[in-house]
Specification:
By secondary structure, this protein is mainly alpha-helical. It is built from five helices and three strands, in the order H-H-H-E-H-E-E-H. A hairpin with a 5-residue loop joins strand 2 and strand 3. Helix 1 crosses helix 2, helix 2 crosses helix 3 and helix 4 crosses helix 5. The protein starts with a helix and ends with a helix.
Length: 157
């Protein structure tokens, strides 16, 4: 059983032990289970599980915020009478090496309004991204690296 499966099982057991299988009791079970697994992580083979799990939760909340903000920005720009868009394809050099992390980055970029992952180099070192806001390609590249890649790297480290 993976640590994530054990973590989710502990959350359900916590909720059942409290006598109410509600969202609040499940959230509390996730918090308590994460703390227990963080303390037992070295014994179970992953000493950083608790930290990585909470960073994954933070990444999910960051992505939802980014998704909302980008959606509003694109909607406002599309509804304007004059479009001030400068579409561009930019190459984003990747520091990520884990395949799942690269796939997660490409999907997050594609799901964010205004950007689309279009290709990955054969050696998985560069992600090609189409952006609606390519007036400053270096700023767009650094935003992807700083906002998405760095947070994903913290989860997979």
């Amino acid at each position: 059983m993976t640590l994530l499966g054990l973590h989710l099982g502990m959350a359900v057991l916590w909720a059942m032990a409290t006598g109410s299988l509600t969202f609040a009791s499940l959230v509390m079970g996730v918090i308590v289970g994460g703390g227990v697994l963080h303390l037992l992580g070295p014994v179970l083979g992953d000493p950083r599980y608790g930290i990585r799990f909470y960073r994954a939760i933070a990444l999910a909340f960051f992505f939802l915020r980014e998704l909302f903000a980008s959606g509003i920005r694109v909607a406002v720009d599309v509804l304007r009478p004059s479009l001030d868009l400068t579409p561009a394809v930019i190459a984003v050099p990747l520091d990520l090496r884990h395949e799942a992390a690269i796939v997660l980055l490409a999907n997050m970029v594609s799901l964010t309004p205004g950007t689309l992952s279009i290709d990955l180099s054969e050696d998985n070192s560069t992600l090609y991204v189409h952006t609606m806001y390519g007036a400053d390609p270096e700023a767009a590249r650094q935003a992807i690296k700083r906002d998405f890649e760095q947070r994903i790297q913290e989860v997979f480290r």
